[in-house]
């Protein structure tokens, strides 16, 4: 059985009504087979023999092409946050692939505990709960 080519992929996608573009791979040999007009912008002018593979971003997720690792950035302030800011940070997490689920669930549990204590939105959070937040934010 032969390896599928880009033409095969294009044919199947066209049949389904999909116009696939901005392609990239973490294998230089595969990138070399992608027609230049269908490559992601970051690899169009890339010297596949020498240049460093780029970091691609989609849906708030960064993909380091070279190491084949995903990275998600969440802006967590270093100062002790009030309840309002913790809620803002947790609510701002966009994680379509679910990579940050452990962080989000623990942070929501922390928010539930803060709510049970009936603390105001801008009240100082007790040290024990701040330590939990510091652990999550690290």
Automatic annotation (TrEMBL):
Superkingdom of origin organism: Eukaryota
Pfam families: Peptidase_A17
InterPro entries referenced in this protein's UniProt entry, alphabetically: Retrotrans_Pao
Classification via PANTHER family: GAG-LIKE PROTEIN, PHD-TYPE DOMAIN-CONTAINING PROTEIN
Protein name: Uncharacterized protein LOC106808632
Gene: LOC106808632
């Amino acid at each position: 059985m032969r390896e599928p080519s880009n033409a095969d992929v294009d044919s199947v996608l066209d049949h389904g009504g999909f116009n696939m573009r901005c392609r990239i791979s973490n294998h230089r040999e595969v990138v070399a087979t992608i027609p230049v007009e269908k490559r992601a912008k970051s690899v169009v002018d890339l010297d596949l023999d020498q240049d460093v593979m780029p970091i691609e971003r989609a849906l708030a997720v960064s993909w380091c092409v070279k190491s084949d690792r995903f990275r998600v950035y969440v802006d967590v302030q270093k100062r002790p946050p009030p309840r309002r800011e913790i809620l803002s940070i947790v609510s701002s997490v966009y994680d379509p692939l679910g990579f940050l689920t452990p962080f989000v669930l623990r942070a929501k549990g922390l928010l539930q505990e803060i709510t049970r204590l009936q603390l105001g939105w801008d009240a100082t959070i007790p040290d024990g709960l701040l330590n939990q937040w510091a652990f999550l934010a690290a």
